[in-house]
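Quick question, first post here. What does this chain look like in 3D?
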Amino acid sequence: MTFRDPAFFLLLIPLIGLLVLIWFRKTNFASLRMSSVQVFKKTPSTMRTKLAILPFLLQISALILIIYGLARPQEANTKIKKNIEGIDIMISLDISDSMLIEDMGQLNRLETAKETIARFVEKRTSDRIGVVIFAGESFTLVPPTLDYPLLLDQISKITTAASARIKDGTAIGVAMASAAGRLKDSIAKSRVIIFLTDGENNSGTIDPETGLEIAKGYGLKVYSIGIGRDGPTRIPVTVQDVFGNKVKTYQPFESKVNDELLQKFATDTGGKYYRASRDDSLEKVFNDINNLETTKIDVNKFTRYSEKFSFWIWFAFFIYLSAWVLQMTWLRRIP
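> Answer (accepted):
Ran it through. Tokens below.
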């Protein structure tokens, strides 16, 4: 409840002053002087005598209600309309064998990326998100969707190229073209590719420059991420011993991220390039992207006010009329 003219409540001040004056006069000045009031104390009081003050109290209540009505009480009915402009995002994730290198903390590159992507998805609310995985080939794991539980479930099941039954390698151009193809028909005003890889292009039927031109042609923005450290490292390989047990061994591997190519992806499309060599740095990368690509929400607020003063005025009139009727009938006082 709100009041359109709350200044009318100031009228309560003289009303309170009048009540104090009436009480003071009644307690300090006698209306009729008597030598003794003992005889009146012995007289039994009736219901009429007990309620003699009722008309006066009703009149005061009516005046208070009139002041309340003059302040114009109103009920506000507010409606909020939200226009949400979501973003379409395709995440292109490298799952080549080199992503199993254990140089990102407690987990390897692939598991670190999966966990970070999952936390990124959980922070979005109204954006369609899809996933493309690639090695020597690529395919769409999940097309752009708002079904986040499905998306998170599929992300958790991502494995290496061998388990996904695609050939090993790093087909950057093919992966870029696949992700761009999934966004080409999108009507969202903001369309983004998040591209993660830890190597250089060495496979595929589409070269990276062509993949970049496809993304640019569709007006897509690319955030490229080079994951892992460069230089000599070891790649885990699982083999079977003579007893048929699986044993994890390590083979020497030269890790190299094509920073120049990934930087070009970002620069030419208006995105940004990041280098993540630790698990915490990858988390910061996705937090940065989450802050840069915010969903636009326009809020329109409409408020409609309903006047309630007439009810209180009529209520005050009814109370005052009741007081007058009581004064003229059952509670009539004769001087």
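The CA atoms of residues 45 and 154 lie 87 Å apart.
The chain has a mean pLDDT of 84.
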